[in-house]
# Entry
Amino acid sequence: MPDFLDLSRHFTDEERAIQQSVRAFVDARVQPIIGDHWEKGTFPMELVAEIAELGLLGCNLKGYGCAGLSDVGYGLAMLELERGDSGIRSFASVQGSLAMYPIHSFGTEEQKNKLLPEMAKGKIIGCFGLTEPDYGSNPAGMRTVAIDDGDSWVLNGTKRWITNGNIANLAIIWAKVGGVDGVVHGFVVPTDSKGFTAQLIHKKASLRASVTSELILEDVRIRKDAILPNVKGMKGPLSTLTAARFGIAWGVIGAASSCFDCAVDYAKHRVQFAGKPIASHQLVQAKLAECLSQITNMQLLALEVSRLKGEKKLRPQHVSLIKRHNVRAALEIARVTRDILGGNGITLEYPIMRHMCNLETVYTYEGTHDIHTLILGQDITGIAAYE
# Structure
């Protein structure tokens, strides 16, 4: 794991300890099995209890059985999980940031006390239903609706590209109250509700060791108190996404570092031309130097934005900056290091091709690269250019 500027000197003892414990878990439990799971397109459910035991589910939330880690500690945990695989980090991110966070931030005390401790233990798994088949980058156009039917809500709609959908016990569903022109609200929907169906999305060439689903809601009737009462409008889902994107920006440093470490080791041992390792050639060293520079930039950005978050000075545009930059840099590093391994780079004997394919999804989800570009463009100019 490269740390060229010794940035770990800024970490607290607790932050170093959490990074070391998650790293040991990934090395011992994730690395030996993840390639096979990725190839088969299966998620290693046996790891859920162990991830929960480490305190990684909702680990930056305070109270209600959550670990209450610092923002840097949370980021380092996500980094180490994604060093194993983006699918493992995505599971933890969705559980903590997309399912637990909105309950923690917008729910009632009854909802928090009932759900969050069990979610932190991995006993209840959640998912986040915002994206729809026709409304991805423009979630405000959603067609899912919730109708007040006296003593209950009735939900109808379809959500797509939902991580954890088929293994979730509850879904945080965002819907417009009253009709398609109504105001967006969040609802805690038990997935065993009548009319609720989760369908696996198959034939993925990315995030294969992750559960990705389509959720179909047909006259799903839920209790009146299932609504998240303390937020309305797009502030709810968008602030939730900001929390998740922060973890993504840290996580992809792990994927990039895995690719870099693999390429350095390979280049030192791969002999070619006059019996010399390819690491002795200028072109290979130039590629490795550029990768190290990019990883260091990623680390600096993530650390500085974490400080802003801790000082309560964080703006969503800060998170757009690091999500956009770090994911693009990680994808470029994966492509360059794959090239260093030549033909061997496309096999699952090495982690690089798996990371590269996964990062294509991370580049797209929770705000595409282009959407984050436009968020920054609007912040720079004051002019929205989405349409």
Observations:
- The mean pLDDT is 97.
- The radius of gyration is 21 Å.
